[in-house]
Amino acid sequence: MQLLTAGGLTEAKQFASGIGPPKALLDHNLVKQAHALGLSVTPYTFRLTDTGRFKTLREEMSYYLYDLGVDALFTDNPDLFPRAKINE
């Protein structure tokens, strides 16, 4: 995805206030670069059937929100949205 490079983010800033990439494409560096340009980061889609390496959906969403620092996220399960960081 060309828009998820440093140059692509700079280009996106010309017409967007945020990015909404698939969650699998995010890392700390990309979130930091986007935020440095004033772009919000809202990955998709968090659902019970696709938690990857995480034990629970709430744990996965917590990682993206509190460790990676995304601004929001798209989920099929808003009832499981973590209200505070899960201590492990």
Structure, described:
The protein is 33% helix and 5% strand. With 88 residues, it is mostly helical. It has one domain (2-80). Strands 1-2 form a two-stranded parallel ribbon. Helix 2 links the parallel strand 1 (18-19) and strand 2. The mean pLDDT is 93.
Total number of domains: 1
Q: N-to-C SSE series?
A: HEHEH
Low-confidence blocks of residues: none
Largest sheet: 2 strands, parallel
Judging from the principal axes of the Cα atoms, what is the shape? elongated
The amount of helix comes to 25-40%
Q: First CA to last CA: what distance? A: 33 Å
Give Rg in angstroms: 13 Å
* Beta-strand fraction estimate: under 5%
Strand order of the largest sheet: 1-2
Overall mean confidence score, pLDDT: 93
Number of strands: 2
What structural class should be given to the helix and strand makeup?
mainly alpha
Compute the number of helices. 3
Oligomer: single chain
Summed up:
The chain is mainly alpha-helical and about 90 residues long. Helices cover about 35% and strands about 5% of the residues.
Please outline the helices and strands.
Blueprint: H1 6-13, E1 18-19, H2 28-36, E2 40-41, H3 57-68
Keywords:
88 residues, mainly alpha, elongated, 33% helix, single chain
